[in-house]
Amino acid sequence: MSQAPALNSGTEPAGGTGATDHPADIQLPRGALLALSVSAFGSGVSMRVSDPLLPGLANDFSLTLGHAALVITVFAIAYGFSQLIFGPLGDRYGKYRVIAWGTVGCALTTAICSLAPTFEWLLVARVFAGASAAAIIPLAMAWIGDVTSYERRQPILAKFMIGQVLGISSGVLLGGYAADNLHWRVPFEAIAVYFAMGGTYLLWSNARLPLAARKTQLSQGSAFKRMVFEFGQVLAVPWARIVLLTVFAEGASIFGSLAFMVTHIHQLHSMPLAMAGQVVMLFGLGGLLFAISAYYLVHRLGEVGLCRWGGVLVAASYVTLALSGNWWWAIPACFLAGLGFYMLHNTLQINATQMAPERRGAAVAAFAASYFIGQSAGIALSGTLIPSIGTSGVILMGAIGVIGVSQNFARLMRLHRKKA
Predict the structure, then answer these.
(1) Across residues 277-289, what is the average pLDDT?
(2) At 205, which CATH number?
(3) How far apart are CA 136 and CA 138, in angstroms?
(4) What is the DSSP string of 336-352?
(5) What's the domain count of the chain?
(6) What is the pLDDT of residues 119-168, one digit of tens each?
(7) Which residues, at least 6 apart from 388, have a Cβ–Cβ distance to it below 8 Å?
(8) Would you say residue 106 lies in a domain?
């Protein structure tokens, strides 16, 4: 990989196996990318809506904060492991089509969350919600990789991610408002309706795609054996293994802290959950700034610079959030943490789309699986440690983790390019 993606030369690096992949840009009908972003918005809301609800769930069901956080953990675990299924399914039946039906499935599973009679049933429903949501963002990334040339891919991916970014912000805001003013079931009801409309839009868009954008791969023999083979081929690539381990550690470090951020601000500064949610939603708006300025930042800093400085921004912001005695410091800290996260994560994403280009669906699915399994591990660890070190302690742990992850990956990228 001799050049960073979308940098000055505009050339495409080779995949980890030495194979190159240069998809030509496919002429898409108006609204095709927007439909994916609409679905990604719902996925983002679903991922983070539970964060501000944790104190209320803990109180309603007589749970500890760490136990209540299982609603986030099980969603992330199901989301991660389901990638092992949806990646090959997308390659076999068409990525856009699988995304559309996955969004319809999200409407059903989120509606079940709103009807859960006990906390145990809510956990089961969140497992299915995470599994169905797994069909959306990673397959959309892989599909974008199929229909766009590499030199244009990172800015397009950044624009697509605006949907998820705004969804994350809206999820925290919706959850915070519901925690103070509504029942915890109401956000899930609203999300279910949104997914139903988004799934309908995607099915309509899929029918309008050109044949080249709906391509499938014929499978031979057992579907399970093919799945094992596909992921085995991805894991056989040394650079792919590095990317997957890095995104696992990134997810654990950043989201092991972020899941408790609203609760931290609420408890430390005696701030209403709705207001704390408004502050933390700035994390998503920082990501929006990256999406808007992605083209400039990519050309200005390159992949190594984005990774290095993104990690520094997140770490500095987390330290500020953990140690500051004044609540208003959380405003710039949450915003800059979001900007830094998307600088780092978008760099990992673009590497994921190219680490095994001939098996892009499986590669991006493995990437997402590592990312969300890392999140679940980080949240579970933080939930266990909160009684002893508090929310400030787990946020400081996240700062230490992300600075190590980002600087190490920046170093490895530089070495990888020298060898290529």
Answers:
(1) 84
(2) 1.20.1250.20
(3) 6
(4) HHHHHHHHHHHHHHHHH
(5) 1
(6) 999 999 999 999 999 888 878 887 887 777 766 666 677 778 778 778 88
(7) none
(8) yes
- Please report the sign of the dihedral spanned by the C-alpha atoms of residue 60, residue 66, residue 72, residue 74: negative
Angle at 242 between CA 238 and CA 247, to 5 degrees: 145
Domain assignment of residue 395, yes or no = yes
Percentage above 90 pLDDT, the chain: 29
Residue 20 counted as domain residue: no
Task: Report d(CA 275, CA 95) in Å as an integer.
Answer: 39
Given this model, what pLDDT does residue 28 score? 66
**Count of CB atoms within 10 A of residue 114's CB?**
18
Question: Are residues 53 and 174 in contact, defined by beta-carbon separation less than 8 angstroms?
Answer: no
Amino acid identity for residue 260 in this structure: F
Please indicate, yes or no, if residue 10 is contained in any of the structural domains: no
pLDDT for 40-73, tens place per residue? 999 989 988 888 888 888 888 888 877 888 898 8
- Give CB contacts under 8 A, 24+ apart, made by 326-333: 327/265, 327/268, 327/269, 327/271, 327/279, 330/265, 330/269, 330/279, 330/280, 331/279, 331/282
Q: Which amino acid is at 158?
A: A
The range of the structural domain enclosing residue 278 comes to 32-213+225-419
